[in-house]
């Protein structure tokens, strides 16, 4: 069975009408005035279904917020490690600082867990301090 567009499946390519065990059959559809109304309602219901799915995707649960917050914190720690390695090797560059600043500017979701929020606050503070120290090293004010 081939699905085409938003109007639903097309008739089987074999030319025979589809039959089920109950005796119900789908004949070949012809262009009748009554066939346009179900197609229009099917298209409208498809749009409503897609809208409902998109609305559900926009709703973030507490586990998703926690996952995003932890991922952001881990990203900041990774950028801080990159910066540490660059400083130790004497190859500190602006790209490393830009990545750290960009990660720090990302929105941090609040999942309502005070322990996690306190830990993420400490990570944010450390990243801010390192960025300020780098500005002083570059001669900025």
Automatic annotation (TrEMBL):
Keywords: Cell projection, Cilium, Flagellum. Residues 1-23, 30-40 have a biased composition (Low complexity). It comes from the Bacteria. Residues 1-40 are annotated as: Disordered. It holds the Pfam family FliX. This is Flagellar assembly protein FliX. It comes from Brevundimonas intermedia. The gene is fliX.
């Amino acid at each position: 069975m081939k699905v085409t567009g938003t109007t639903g499946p097309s008739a089987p390519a074999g030319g025979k009408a589809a039959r089920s065990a109950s005796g119900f059959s789908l004949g070949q559809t012809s262009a009748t005035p009554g066939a346009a109304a179900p197609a229009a309602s099917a298209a409208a219901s498809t749009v409503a279904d897609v809208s409902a799915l998109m609305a559900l995707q926009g709703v973030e649960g507490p586990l998703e917020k926690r996952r995003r917050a932890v991922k952001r914190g881990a990203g900041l720690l990774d950028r801080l490690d990159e910066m540490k390695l660059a400083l130790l090797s004497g190859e500190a560059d602006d790209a490393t600082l830009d990545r750290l600043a960009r990660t720090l500017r990302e929105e941090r979701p609040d999942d309502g867990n005070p322990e996690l929020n306190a830990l993420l606050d400490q990570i944010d503070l450390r990243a801010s301090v390192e960025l300020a120290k780098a500005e002083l090293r570059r001669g900025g004010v």
